[in-house]
Specification:
transferase, Ubiquitin-like (UB roll), Cytidine_deaminase-like, FdhD, five-stranded mixed β-sheet, globular, alpha/beta, sulfurtransferase activity, 34% strand
Length: 271
């Protein structure tokens, strides 16, 4: 397990500020914090993310893993976060030859709080083999109900996305961030550190299901992706190619299955 080091303690997730309502009354309200975090790999700068600041070590690991810059958790020696200079450095004994070439192959994306992926991001997709899930409609409803207990920062301040790793209707881990891709990378970092397999897991997000989101969940080995929001054409095409059960517009007792309906048992059809 890598060594973790952090200075300036944990970054606050919200801040109380003054606002004036429609009646002219002054109110104290919470807003979401937003701060830059520059990621370094063996002290070479990789990218600067705009983030809420929750679990920065796992965000750094998950981002680098999903981009294809690291692959072996046993060779990660340390993760150093220093909020005084807004940086996170991952030190690994794994070879990073060709890093600068990979960084030069940059694509601007639809992601919020991130906005770009690198050439290595698409590598290895043809080798991904996901488990075939078995999911009940009643389980989806129970999961959505349980998720209502989360989203603490969103409830207090808005302006953030939330993502969760779930097993059936149980939420194993949930994180919020300014960008939905930061949130998914943070959870990817947790699975990476814990050497967890995603075969029996469900990934939930409040954000839209774009190609980047589908790819990252596939790289985590998770075969079911559920979103409160909508999907994009490329997100759907990749889900079909990779065999991901894709559920969107999931809220309350409503959802739409765009791929993998045969993996769901419709056992609680609304009247």
């Amino acid at each position: 397990m890598p060594h973790f080091s952090r200075t300036d303690t944990d970054a606050p997730l919200t801040k109380t500020v003054a606002a004036i309502d429609a009646t002219g009354q002054r109110l104290e309200k919470q807003i979401a914090c937003e701060r830059p975090l520059t990621l370094y790999l063996n002290w070479q700068p990789v990218v600067t993310l705009m983030t809420l600041g929750a679990r920065p070590e796992k965000l750094a690991l998950g981002y680098l893993k999903n981009q294809g810059f690291i692959s072996d958790v046993d060779r990660v020696e340390s993760v150093i976060v220093d909020w005084s200079v807004n940086s996170a450095a991952v030190i690994t004994s794994e070879s990073i030859d060709g890093l600068q070439e990979k960084l030069s192959e940059k694509t601007v994306t639809s992601g919020c709080g991130q906005g770009s992926v690198f050439g290595s991001f698409m590598a290895g997709l043809d080798e991904i083999r996901l488990a075939t899930p078995s999911l009940k409609q009643s389980t989806i409803y129970a999961l959505l109900k349980n998720l209502g207990e989360y989203n603490e920062t969103y409830k207090n301040a808005g302006a953030v996305h939330g993502c969760g790793v779930c097993r059936q209707s149980q939420i194993l881990s949930f994180v919020e961030d300014i960008g939905r891709h930061n949130a998914v990378d943070t959870l990817a970092g947790e699975l990476f550190l814990g050497r967890q397999q995603g075969d029996d897991l469900i990934f939930y997000t409040t954000g839209r299901l774009t190609s980047e989101m589908v790819i990252k969940v596939a790289k985590m080995g998770i075969p079911v992706l559920v979103s409160r929001s909508g999907i994009t054409e490329m997100g759907l095409e990749l889900a079909q190619k990779l065999g991901i059960t894709l559920v969107s517009r999931a809220k309350g007792r409503h959802f739409l299955v765009y791929n993998g309906a045969e993996t769901i048992e419709f056992d609680e059809v609304p009247a």
